Structures
1.
Amino acid sequence: MKSRKDEVLDVLRANPNEQTAQELANQLGVDRTNVSRYLNELTKEGAVKKIDGRPVKFQIATVSTEKHINFDNLIGREDSLKSQIQKSKAAILYPPRGLHTIIFGETGTGKTMFAECMYRFAVSAAVLDESAPFITFNCADYAQNPQLLYGHIFGVKRGAFTGAEQNREGLMEKADGGILFLDEIHRLPPEGQEMLFTFIDKGTFRSLGDGQEKQASVQIIGATTETSSVFLSTFNRRIPMQIELPSLAERSLDERLAIIKEFLQQEANRLMQEIAIDKRSLLAFLLYNAEGNIGQLKRDLKLVCAKAFLHHQTTSESEKLMIVEEDLPLVVQKGLLRMNEVQDKLTPFMDKKNLYLTLKPGTEEVVWGQDPNKDMEVYHSITYKLEKLGRENLSEIDLEELISDDVDQYFETYVEELSHTNAYREIISDDLWKLVNSLYDFASKQMQREYDEKVRFAFALHISSTIERIRGNQFISHPNLNDIRRNYSKEFQLAIELSNRIEEAYNILIPLDEIGFITMFLTMDNQEVKKVDERQVAVLVVMHGKSTASSMLETVQDLLGTTNGIAFNMPLTLDTEAMYGQIKNYIQARRETFSEGIILLTDMGSPNNFGNLIFHEMEIRTRVISMASTMLVLESLRLATLGRSLEEIYTSVISMFQNMVRLEEPTQKDEKKVIIVACFTGEGVSKRLNEVVSQIVNLEEFEIIQMQSLERESFKHRIDQMITHKDIVAIVGTMEIHYQKIPFIPAMNLFKRDKILEFQDLLGSTISLPEMVDSLTKDFLPEIDVKTLFLLIDDVLQGIRKEQELIIENTAVQALSVHLAFLVDKIKKGEERPAFENVKYFHQQHQLRFNQTAIKLTVIEKQFGIRFTEDDIAYIVKTLEDNRVELGSHSV
């Protein structure tokens, strides 16, 4: 007698269609709960297939009819791919171990699939054993880090580099006795090509850091979207078999139809559901311009299948999954516009009897192991969301529309893959790249100008480092913040808005100085991105290997769109002394271009000592960063191109990449900021300037150091020694001297009131505006934009001070800023303010200053919809009067 579980199985076998537990229970006349238990047991045993949905359904599990792709069932084998297949078979059969091969073709033409067919043929022809490995590796995954790339392919010996704590087998060893498929092989640096053709010539290779040779029997198959011209000539000679795959546009409509049918058949089998596509949709897929070739065709087909699946799950109009014209992406629908162009070719496809092409589950299909479209993730995602939202009692129409948006978003990543290159994705996260593009799209509309991808990428790099710097409490001041605010007021206001969006996305607070840098990016055109300042820190890359340094620098230059930077390749046959001699001769011949100092990036060993030698022999300040990767070179060159000083670049790089490189910790600097007072003509003048500066600044915040600068090189050397432990914010002197990006203030400026005010603005105050905003926001009404309020107050007070020629300590200005901000908040709340004693008399006494101040304050009144009383203005005027600095030691 059969058990109940066997009876459930028999019912499912008798009816291969999907059935619910309740339907099965009704047929058997038993309790639904028991049937559900049997079904779950059968599902675990693999006899029954569970189909997620509303409600959950079950179906007898069919034996897979899949068979692996090979040349015998490859679409185009007798037409567009005939000669390519013949050449590849010859490569596999060539004695003794086949010919190494490279496959050329556009993105999405099926290079990976073709390589798998070559492997299947080798096995079927008994050239390779059935257990022979077929190893695939995408060279683009590690193209920005040659060390890791070599390690993956050839293996790593313990101790080869920091972090290599054990021996690691490479892909060459894993592929021994089989095929190693290297996708995007053009991303292999010249050193990698050299190592590879050494293996091709001798059949031997060395793991990274290992002096002992190893042997392996491996056939190399490479794939590339580039032409053979990108490879070394020696590499081209060693890859005798070159195969070029046609684009989808070059293949016949018959082949394209076969590809469409094959894919839809695969989806029908996986979903165990009949799929029908209407005639116009089929014609659209046959004719549209799929720039990504077969890869894009399959991705677009998967999208419409997902939409058909969603519609089927939310309605009961048809038992089939129906693909209709309305669900096609716009780019596919445009294919119908080409119908008149190819009318004669469409005759065989215009069967008037059949309105739909239908594909039933269970029909034999072929698959290949590397197919990225085989996954069921999108269907599972739809089912999960249907179940979740269904519990929230949303209507079916709302449900389908809501999830349809998600399905479209799911496939948006494909567009990103076409526009966002591999190199970019390796450095910038997708989330940040998406945010930066949205910010620049917004900026383009506001500024009525275009920002190209190079500008956006440079900005993305900047924001990435800014986020890391802020999170690590590393702040960098903008040397020309006030000039930026004055000269680019529109861009500055836009930068504030963009910074707000970045703050929300990453939960950080962006300082005003960083907003200044954002403003610079909004004002730059392509040329300005490449060159912000004529005087820049030089970036030198010195690496072991025939072309390691140049290859790494070229990658970075391409990403940043710049020609800056110098590479020195150090072949293993070249001794250290000779290498240093080359670098020394190069610097001495162009000494003027190194006035701002040198960032020297090295990989390991003796070049780490070059920095000290350069400084002592040529008196050029040099900072060395060892164990450098492409990312370190990228960040160093980016900051140098932006005009940052040597110390800023060095500090920023080592603080961002502390976990990647072994470097000394930056020296902690003294709390007090330093103003250097320098004079060529003697101590008397320097002392006089010291007295003037002492009256202008807060001596609790600033330290004034007198220095004689008659010998300019000696003066620079003292600056170099001092800058490691002191924050030098300005040099005041009688003769102009620019060094280390330290602002220079001519002595004459300290005898002009308007210039003194600019000097004070340059120095800034102890607490930054963003810090004040962050600490005070909670005390204000929610409707008040505190950051905008403080910025406006800052502008108003600057205007008052310049118009009235008031010299006031920055601490007093800061206190007045806070007073004004809270005054606005009190007025908005309707709270009472204290009356000013004898306000009418005070007004008459200071009528000019009073009226000038009242006029400047109208900007705040209009912005926040308030009105300052006579008492309010009197308190502000009195505060300004009480805190003005009377310079008794010199006339102004």
Note: The chain has 38 helices and 23 strands.
2.
Amino acid sequence: MTAGNESVPELLPMVFAAPNEALARARALLDSAPPPEHASVAHQVIGIWQRDWGDLRLALEHLRRARDLAARAESPEREADVLATLGVALVHAGRTRQGLAAFEQGVRRGSGHTRARVLYRRAYVWWVLGHHREALEDVRRAIPVLRQTGDVIWTARALTLRATVHLALGAVERAEADFTAAEALWDTTGQEHDKADAVESRGLAAFRAGDIPAALRLLDEAEERYAKLGTPTFMLNIRRCEVLMAAGLAPEALAEADAAIAVLDGIGGQSTRKAELLLAAARAARLAGDPGTAIARAAVAVRLFSGQRRGWWEAHARLVLIEARFASGRGYGRLVADAARVAERLEGSGAPAAPEAWLLAGRIALHLDWTEDAERYLRVAARSRRSGPPLARITGWAAQALRARAAGSGRGVLEACRRGLAVLDDHRMTLGASELRARATAQGAELAALAQAVSLAGGGPRRLLEWSERWRATVLTAPPTRPPADPVLQSGLTAFREIAARAEEARRDGRPVPALEREQRRLEREVRSRTLHIRGDAPGGGYRFDVAGMLERLGDGRLVALAVLDGRVQVLLCGGGRVRRFAGGQVERAEREAEHVQATLRRLAHPRAEGRLPLVEAMGRRLEEVLLGPAARHLGSGPVVVVPPARLHSVPWALLPSLRERVVSVSPSASSWLRARETEPPTGGRHVLVRGPGLATGGAEVPEVADRYGRATVLEDADARVPRVLEELDGAALAHIAAHGDFRADSPLFSSLRMVDGPLIVHDFERLARSPYRIILSSCDTARLASVGADELLGLVTALLPLGTAGVVASSAPVNDEAVVPLMLALHKGLGDGLSLAEALRDARAAVPSDATHQATGWAFTAFGAA
């Protein structure tokens, strides 16, 4: 490169069009011994690159050198421009006073167009510092000048910045207008980094407007653009953490924030970004139920923000610190005043987080019985229930519910809870991915618990049942949004399946698999990411639970709905035209017993474990005592439907003595049981039998079952491939799948059944137009589910129920393959005699040999639904 006048000015805009190329050209220019003004440009380019994507210490060295060279060249405009760049770097290094002084000098040295650019960059710094009104004033002065001079790039930057400031103040519509205007300008330029930043900003706007799928999609697109440029993405990390937390994915947000902090520390990057990442990590840790980590991260963030003179940010960090301390039981009295002070600071600066702070102050005051203070704080927090994004309105309704409870108004509590959960219903249905719908319910957990507590205290068993149903298994109230015809998603699923199959083959052969496992995890992330982008298309608030209709449908049967309030099981026994309540035991004890039972069933799946049979039977008696209590004596003689809370999904209900000889089915909610009862079987009665690879018995029951049904479609060997299996399963009356199951606790929607060409996962089932009316999964762990959100379950079974499946038989534990065969044959005999799945499973358990392995296998299987 030459040092000619025509080429040097191109370097500065190139930093945000092709950053690495600009860096290389600037270094080459310096090697050519350029005159001071040109050298100043080169050092400024290197300083910008180091400031935004490298070592901040080196950035300051180059920018100071650029300033000195501009002064030597006697170019006030050049000096003003460098001073603005230096001011940004100083602020990012935590040297706020020096940075603002550099801007003052730059404003004095520059004129016209240059001064407008300086004002824009000072507006950016005001935004970083949380001085939003000052930021708006500077950018208001800069934009007209930039427009008049035809400076498209800097006008677009200024519009993008103004939109971002509007978002920080909660003015979403103004922000969207500025983002739209900026994007139109960016389309006329080659500024690829700025374009990526514009996409990122639109993602932030979508999030502030409550559109989480669009926010995730846009942030992922921005990340792809940054990756092509080879630049780090710390601001993107911060924004994605916000969206992940709102989507109920706090552990992922914490991991992302901590990883970004490690990268930032490794390159000696911006102190301001580190403080913001620490704040994001603190919020994520608090939401993930880790107050200790939240306190540690938030305390460091407070210290950094304070040193950087960033009061707006410091107030947000203090809010998280107080929330975490309250969650850990520390210093309640002092925390009330601290929370109120933070709330006043946030409200004074127009921060959207102010209602959250007022709610926290009121909640702590209520905990201390400071009713007057609580009423004052909650009244202010409740104002947000009328307007704003969904999560802010839910905060307001939570405050209103707490106010009503403090005033002794049960009716007021229920009304506030009803209104707040209705807001969350509407928000939840904008989410297309069943995982996001399930996790979003956590936002309504407090409202549901308040309503249940009021119902328990004075509303009667029927009302308690209604409110327990109101927020139980809500993901199943509407079918999931079908994945679009997305070729990228389809190719990702195919590639994932191929890699997973190769990894499994390598494990069987004893070959190393780390590289394959890394590629499998990468493909999983891509598939999941594309799935989370899906926007919901079903209206909210459609189905409502009908207690009278349920009691009529039960006939001579009983439905046992278990609710958990204040750590204790409440048994709601429905049948005979009424709902009765019985007190159970402590839910923690039930969870421990269920875990012990599962461990023992796993051992009984292997030979020579007969001595443990009396042990597991004793566990069943203890489980019945804590889960059913006196209700066990009032079950009548008919069939029983059990509706457990999500945290008790792993209980093998057939093991409980009072249920062992009964027809028992399990449902995630009474509502879903009613819908299963009303689901009509498909015409034609098509039967599909699938036999996957690698079973110890080779799926020995499949040929005999096929003979029983005569015209059944049998898929095995090369036919047992995922595309063909899905094609045949769609709309079948009965499906029996004998295949190895794999439950993924870390990612439940990647739980799978092994086919010849790789795993058949939950995401695949969600592509069916209608899943089989009845489905039998005769393999290990197919009924295991992950508890998420308020009271939701994710896994194979819950994926099938909203898609048209009325009944499922599956196992919640590893089972003995050989013992499964006679159980399945007996089960299909009962189905051939016209029995339901639950009836046939009851008879099948009685028909198999009485040794420990066969008995444990029978207990491990559960009938779900009502078919």
Note: The two ends are 77 Å apart (CA to CA).
3.
Amino acid sequence: MRPDDPFDDAVTARAVIAADGTLARWSEGARLLLGYPAEEVVGRPAADLLADSAVPPRLPATRWSGTLVLRRRDGETVTVWMLAHHRQPSGNGPGEWLAVTPMETSDQELPDDPLVRAAVFQSPCAAMVFDEALRLHGVNDAMAYLLGLPAAHLRGLRPTDVGSRPQHAELERHLRQVLRTGRPYEMQTYMKATGESRAHAWLARLAPLTDRTRRVRGVCVTVHDFTEQYRARERLQLVNEASMRIGTTLDVTRTAQELAEVCVPALADFVSVDLLEPDEPGGEPVHPLTAPVSLRRVAHQSRTPGNPEASAALGEVVVYPAAAPHADSLIAGHSIMASVSSGELDPWLAVDDARTRQILEHGVHAILSVPLQARGTTLGVAAFSRFSHPEAFTHDDVLLAEEVTARAAVCIDNARRYSRERETTLALQRSLLPRTLPRTAAVEAATRYLPAARSGVGGDWFDVIPLSGMRVAMVVGDVVGHGIQASATMGRLRTAVRTLADIDLAPDELLTHLDDLVHHLSQESGGDPGHGEVGATCLYAVYDPVSRRCTLARAGHPAPVMIPPGGAARHLDLPSGPPLGMGGLPFESAELELPDEAVLAFYTDGLVESRGRDSEVGHALLREALSHAAGPLDETCDRVLQTVLSPGGATDDVALLLARTHGLPAAQVATWDIPADPALVAPIRKQVVDQLGTWALTEASFTAELVVSELVTNAIRYGAPPIRLRLIHDASTLICEVSDTSHTAPHLRRAKTWDEGGRGLLLVAQLTQRWGSRHTAEGKTIWSELALVDEM
């Protein structure tokens, strides 16, 4: 052994015992005590040193102290007091034991030492004194109690001889620092005193002791118990952490899980949160409560990975009988503590064998049940269990648990109310959106609507509206704001768009009327109309499959994307137009010709805009996702949402409408220019009948002939030339249109008994599926639709 090895000195006998019971090291002090040199005992069983009558001690898990009778090398026996403690292994081995005994007699008068007299008797708190070699010179009774060892036997021991806790090694390191620098040092530690069931917080002050020449001769260690302050600080820290970590979202399940995570392991080893369920979706929890109580497990957390202590899976209904603390605290409305040792859980465990096995298996010894209450409503119960914590719950623990659960209950109630309002708003929103899209010959359409993940349901909408002449209108809009008010406004605007579309207004004119409506809605809401208290954006497009032309206008809405067959996606260059509600500003339309099978993508800004990402990036992702739109539109919609939306979900509502255009073949359209001569109506009827024969629609000839005759005669009599007749048909509909340059539109009236006229339009209305008129740039068009097949 090296002479400077701190293990080897003549003041204390030390020996290291390996896990197999053999001696691994032997100090000089041990040789002086028993007479054996190291080479004779190292490798031998330590029990060989015991006297024949001595019984080997039962070593606990950490430390043992007591009196042993040992046999010296000369055959004599010696009785010594010995302290042994288990040391953590340096590698993957089982560890070893360090056994020490002071060589000095225990009856020395410690007050004769001036260092001990100055430190021990003048200190009002626990104190001990170490010399320059870091050997313990003496302790007072308070320190001996803290160390859990008799004061008379501690003289000559080093800090690491007393125990193997990290605090002992840290103390020895700082003692050397004080001896070297001569400056005091303060350190904090958290440990248990012998006989105490709870750990204590200690503040240790290490002060150098000097002689008359100012030479440092030792170190005095005084210890102050500041457990209450430490625990108060811990409680305050937990409450502060709860205020920051609980309620980060408006999700009931996530909020309950945050409560469980905050309290483990700071307050309990296992926490479960069970919530009462309302009688009906969106209602209040059932009151008053009676046992047994049924709750749904929404969250739990354990310090053991995998939550093996959980008695129920997440989402499972748990039934608590009257004897369970969970039910009792819910019914009583206050916290209940119960422990296994006191027998308070016996009535519950007597009727629940599975719970009894679980408590015994995991060593649960204390349960604290706290009802979750907010705004006069009991929402559920949080249960705190301890099995690794050796201490039972105290009154301070109850106050802390109630403080944390009270904060969590408010957050859970907020989330519950928000969820209920969100579900109501979402139900309203979905009821106002089209459930199915109409099937038209002009376009094939697919849509998606996603409410915002966090900000709530807004006012995004879409629609596909069949128009006369086999044309179709497509609209996408976005109302400013979120919630029920935005959804209600959206419903009013969608209804207005349908009404305006029914009278066949041009897109720019329709947006002008819609702008007036939003302007008036803003006035009704009490806001400043100029600043858009009620505001919206909108894009309106009309596609004509006969001419294959599409007319579009937008009011502050993102421009659509067009994907030609086999081509790259590109944004259409349209006049932007002001948002709806500004009042008095004009809108412009743009017209373009679309190839067959082209795809138009209409969307709201929630698709391409998100926090932390530039909108141009979103537009680029959208074009990339639409570049392969040749397949089914539903698949394209899903691909767009997966590609463009961020992983956290949409931060705003998203409405997406994809429409693939289908042009009508020229063979399904017939057009005639009509002279303004009533005598030529009969030849026109014959041409119509011949054309229907060519189309194999002879079964509709009689009705079509009557309708054409009436509409052409009215145009010759009341309209202005030039007059044009057009027939359009697809698989299910025959459309008859008569156009002239007069802007006077006919109206339906009921003729009196002796009137000679006034029955023509009434006859048309009776014979056709629907009819109407629309204004054009050149005049007007009267149209009617005949069903070719019976609708089931």
Note: The longest helix spans residues 395-432.
4.
Amino acid sequence: MKIAIVGGGPGGLYLAALMKQLDPAHDITVWERDAPDVTFGFGVVFSDETLGGIENADPEFADAMSRRFARWTDIDIHVGGESHTVGGQGFAAMSRKELLGLLQQRCRDLGVVVHYSTPAPDVGALRASHDLVVGADGVNSLVRQSSSDVFRTTLDRRHNKYMWLGTDLVFEAFQFFIKDTEWGTVQVHGYPYSDSGSTFIVEMHEDVWRRAGFDTAEEFPPGVSDDRAVERIRELFAAELAGHQVFANNSKWLSFTTVRNERWHDGNLVLVGDAAHTAHFSIGSGTKLAMEDSLALAACLHEHRDVETALTAYEAERRPVVESTQRAAQASLEWFENIGMYVGQEATRFCFNLLTRSRRITYDNLRTRDSDFADRVDAAFAASQGLETTAPAMFQPFRLGQLELKNRVIVSPMDMYSAVDGVPGDFHLVHLGSKAMGGPGLVMTEMVCVSPEGRITPGCTGLWTDEQRDSWARIVSFVHERSTARIGFQLGHSGRKGSTRLMWEGMDEPLPDGNWETISPSPLPYGPGSPVPRPVGRDDLDRITAEFVAAARRGADAGFDLLELHCAHGYLLSSFLSPISNQRTDSYGGSLENRLRYPLEVFDAVRAVWPAERPMIVRISATDWADGGNTEHDAVEIARAFIAHGADAIDVSSGQVTADERPAYGRSYQTPLADRIRHEAAAATGTAVIAVGAIASYDDVNSILLAGRADLCAIGRTHLYDPHWTLHAAAEQDYRDVQWPVQYRAGSRKPPTARTDAVRPRLSLLRADAPDRNVHLRWTPHRPLVSGVIPAG
């Protein structure tokens, strides 16, 4: 096979070496525009998983790398004048320049032709003359630009400024230096890469960077460092450097750009490494990802002789891994962009927050690595809550207004579409009753509608009649008599999302017959096929407010412990808040203040009749996930407004405001929204914040609470899978101080389980130059991922 590789960085050279080992007959040429001794940055960090793949693929190269490694197991976090150490990490780093030297030598030994200081020929000409063209030419890839219409690239330029430096101070562990300056928070990511030097990355928000005067520097050409900025950094971190030097290497202020591509290959053209994707340095190394790409691509090319089939297989294999890494990296980089929100936390909680920022590292991960640190985190959390005893965070009690909750787990509202004429029946009794007996602190009903026209579907429950009230009272009484849980109801009006079929018959699809008129702030349908709603007038608003008030009174009479006003998911009150659905020109539209007006009117009216000793909370969509819609910054202001009007908690959901939304789904994907609202809107008043959305494990719950990202966690679908999830979580954690229903106590101890050491198959490739040796180009991770903690080059 004749292969052209554009880019002589680690990804391109490693691919060339692998392919040449697999078949010396491959004709491989690499073009690199820089000289062989030119490189940027200082150190490169590798995880155990990556090193395992390299060792299996090329033991000789892996051995050469290992002789140059600096290894460490600890992370030191310096914040607020204190230093905290967390152990058990296990990473290795080496000089980027030495890594390139090893790869260059490996390619020379194997007969790979490399043209240095030479721009690659035209991509079209390369494609015509080669079987395969590989774009390994980095973030600003010219290869990628040659097929931009196919790759459909998006470039997300982030808000922090950073500079990659080195120092002759050899750190004994990874170092986070968090410095609170007169301009704002500045942080350093530092780690050793040899016995003579360490990487020293300085990072700060662009606003801090400007206030500190770093924006006054001139534009520096390629190959020239920003010496004035480097000198200021030496002064700023003089205490941390303790007399040691800081070195530049083409070092200048950069803004990280997240690169994403809808496709990574086009015919015989394929992208690897930063040309295809980037992940912020605070979670993973671009070098690491590029070399993993090369491992996977070499394996697929060896497996599949047809290039198109091989490239399709490569993309199918790597894309899920890379996208997962990018999601974690996005969470990590946003955390550092917002680090100023957290520096006021108690130091131990701050450290835990930092370490778990990407959501790949959790409380259980850290306890496995450093149980002493986990104990300190537990103690710090208990102290912050005024509690004398430590326990899993999810099982610590919580006071919501005047309502005492036995723990911090909420069964989230979930529409069941199983009522008749709005009346909840035996299904709802069993559904909510079983969840209450499963151990949560609070059980929430589905959205209870204020009128027949306020229903989403004909199967939705309501509180517009006394019959409905009495049926709800039966359910509330069961929960109170048979469990120690509290029960709340979610009150709302469907607005323009009403008159639709039951979920399993077609979610958000209009009824085939028996429709009722839908209403909204503006005559804009929810999505394709949705009816055009009638815009509400003054009489409508007064009538609907009265319906909310009447339903709230019935809810109080039914005995509910809590009321949640539904101002999320594109229903009526939510549609007033969003500029996507509210395009009015009167006092209820336009500015955010105006868009808040009617939801606040309803809140005030309901709060006036809802018993003062019972909490009233609000669910909001913290982002519309759509252009022109509300963002998390708007959500902070929305939350502040409801808090000012007396909300006891803000329940932070997102989206479902428009059918055109593009959510960034992932594990606990809405938690950062709750985190921002908690720190920017709720902290000043002590108002509770509830996190919800893809929180699936007790470890996630504990991690969210311990880091201070939320006060309570609402969990939905997991409770459909396991109605007794909270009790089972207690058993899994060997936590005994929970109250099982007396009828179920015989099952309160975790039963023994048989261990099975399942081994996933590994791919073995026969080396052409040594038929008796196997080369493994894919690997099975053999321990929990820890790449959410360590930045790399």
Note: Residues 578 and 630 are 6 Å apart (CA to CA).
